[in-house]
Amino acid sequence: MQAFQFLMSTIIGALSVIFILRVWFQYCQVDFYSPISQSLAKFTNPVLNPLSKIIPTFKRINFAALFIVFLLGFVKAFFINFYIQNVIGYTLGVIDYALIGILQIFSISGQTLLYLLFFSAIMSWFQREPNPIQYILYQLTEPLLKPIRRILPQAGMLDFSPMVLAFILIFINKLFSQYIPYWNFV
Question: Is the pTM of the predicted complex or chain greater than 0.70?
Fold first, then answer.
């Protein structure tokens, strides 16, 4: 049973990351004609196009994709409920399902941003000439790094803003895991 829960959690997590990336690509106005943007759009359009007629995009935020991540969190809560019911004997209510769905959006967003920061930093160590992937990573991380760079003093050739943002994200994750119920489940 644990193997099935791990498999479902992994699939739900991967799909959530894909839809959060779709939101983030659209919000950051990443070059739509890059192969990565095209692949992401082709993968998510069959689900998002019909849903976008009901749930519109507002101020470059694709609420249809966020709703899909919320629903994936709802499904994940179902599997958490099955686990909690068998181990503790407690059954989740509708409010618990909704809370886990909302927390799924925030948790996956933070995790995805952290992965983008790490991937961007690692690529900068090995790849010196610009390439399309680095440009996309720059477009995705720059909206959050720019305010930190304005506050942080220059340190020569070193840019500490990704590290500061990573520390902030990790701190928020630790804080939420301490004070928000179900944060560790999403």
Answer: yes
